[in-house]
Amino acid sequence: MHDVNGNDAGSSSRGDQAYEGLKTRILRHEFLMGAVLKEDEVASWFGGSRIPARDALRRLEQEGLVERVGRRYAVRTYTYPEILVTYRLRAALEHLSVELAVANRKAGGLDRVAHILELQRASLQTISRGEFSDLDTAFHLSIAAMSELDMLQHELSLILNRARLIRTNELAIDAGPEGAYRDHCRIFAAVQRGDADTAKAELDYHFSTTVRLHAISAAPGATQGSAK
Question: Are 152 and 144 within 8 A, CB to CB?
Answer without folding.
Answer: yes
